[in-house]
Amino acid sequence: MLVAMNRWVKVAAVSGALAVALGAFGAHGLKSQVTAESLETWKTAAYYHLVHSAVLLVLASAGEKHMWTKRLMLTGICIFAGSLYIYVLSGVKFFAIITPLGGLTLILGWVSILFSSRQV
Q1: Which of 24, 44, 27, 37 is CA-nearest to residue 99?
Q2: What are the C-alpha distances in Å from 33 to residues 15, 26, 37, 56, 57?
Q3: Which region holds residue 30: left if phi is over 0, alpha if psi is between -120 and 50, else beta?
Q4: Cβ atoms of 59 and 73 closer than 8 Å
Q5: What is the secondary structure of 14-51 as a DSSP string?
Q6: Phi and psi for 10 in degrees, rounded to 5?
Q7: Per-residue pLDDT tens for 90-111?
Q8: Domain spans of the chain?
Q9: Residues 9-63: pLDDT tens digits?
Q10: For the whole model, what pTM was predicted?
């Protein structure tokens, strides 16, 4: 159980570090390269990425409990924030179209917390 918890702490730490790094890249590296609208999209991705990385860190302390929630949150981060990052960098509309699937996955993660907390 301790090994699984440590693995999720590491996942959360890497995810959080990436969120900060990508947020800084957007603020400094992309500012003059993309439109204001695209920069706002990038900021949204970085914000959701960082918030849900913090949630992953909290969930990591639960050990094996909330395993599905952790998986949903990580998948949601990858699809939601990842698709927005790629969309801003590439301009390929497909990536913006799949973003709501990431949002739905994050919502399911939050709902999973609700239902797993009722079992205590």
Answers
A1: 44
A2: 25, 10, 12, 32, 33
A3: alpha
A4: yes
A5: HHHHHHHHHHHIIIIISTTTS-HHHHHHHHHHHHHHHH
A6: -65, -45
A7: 999 999 999 999 999 999 999 9
A8: 2-117
A9: 999 999 999 999 999 999 999 988 999 999 999 999 999 999 999 999 999 988 7
A10: 0.91
